[in-house]
Design a protein that fits this description.
This protein is an all-alpha fold. It contains 7 helices and no strands. The chain is globular and about 40 Å long.
Length: 158
């Protein structure tokens, strides 16, 4: 009976130590602050004023999306900054969205056939849903023609 009790106690202690080790992490890792992107229920982009939007872009969106873009193409996007998406107008706050200075959406099947398939997939399956979530806006829906989609950032070829 005593051996069974001792085994149970040792198993419990081992389990608690294992949980503590797994959840505590190293002191070096825990010293780095992390930015958790909010889900759509914690931000209302539409109701934010300009200064709130700027602060949120700098604190949350730019670091989050820089990581995504750099993972996709480190040579091109490691030094991503405000001008990457907002163009030269980011410097003096004269930019407009959608931005005519960045890649234009093709307006034909032929144009889409010539587009970089990997880039289009990355934009569709990573950037669009991540940005929609970060902005607290539903993804674009063809049924309702509303939500965050390609046309929020990109203009269409003429």
């Amino acid at each position: 009976m005593k051996i069974k009790t001792i085994s149970s106690v040792l198993l419990l202690i081992f389990s608690l130590v294992l949980v503590w080790v797994v959840t505590s992490g190293s002191p070096q890792a825990s010293a780095k602050p992390t930015i958790n992107a909010p889900d759509s229920s914690t931000i209302n982009w539409e109701k934010m004023d300009h200064s709130e939007r700027m602060a949120y872009m700098k604190k949350v969106i730019l670091p989050t999306m820089r990581k995504e873009f750099a993972a996709f193409n480190p040579d091109k996007f490691t030094k991503m900054n405000c001008k990457t998406c907002h163009g030269a107008g980011a410097e003096d706050d004269s930019y407009t969205m959608p931005n005519p200075q960045i890649w234009k959406l093709p307006n034909s099947r032929e144009g889409w056939a010539k587009a970089d398939t990997n880039f289009v997939k990355f934009m569709r399956f990573t950037v669009k849903p991540k940005m929609a979530s970060l902005l607290g806006i539903p993804e674009f829906s063809m049924q309702t023609k509303t939500g965050f989609g390609c046309g929020n950032c990109h203009t269409e070829e003429k």
